[in-house]
Amino acid sequence: MPIVTIQQGPRDVELKRELVKRVTDAFVDAYRIPAETVQVWIHEVPADSWGAAGKLTADK
């Protein structure tokens, strides 16, 4: 059973629905497994809790 973890900033629920569908479909196509066996976990991190290039994302 594949478990896919996606770490990202907060996104709209409709975008997350589409992402979960596409990731699931990719595993179904690549591994020839039932969609029911694919789990997608979305871990959303607030902009003040991560950074890049030495700066908090919230400060950009």
Automatic annotation (TrEMBL):
Sorted UniProt keywords: Isomerase
Record's keyword annotation contains DNA repair: no
UniProt xrefs under Gene3D superfamilies: Macrophage Migration Inhibitory Factor (3.30.429.10)
4-oxalocrotonate tautomerase-like domain ranges (all copies): 2-59
InterPro entries on file: 4-OT-like_dom, Tautomerase/MIF_sf
Superkingdom assignment: Bacteria
Keyword NADP: no
UniProt family annotation: Belongs to the 4-oxalocrotonate tautomerase family.
Descriptive protein name: 4-oxalocrotonate tautomerase
Lineage: Bacteria, Bacillati, Actinomycetota, Actinomycetes, Kitasatosporales
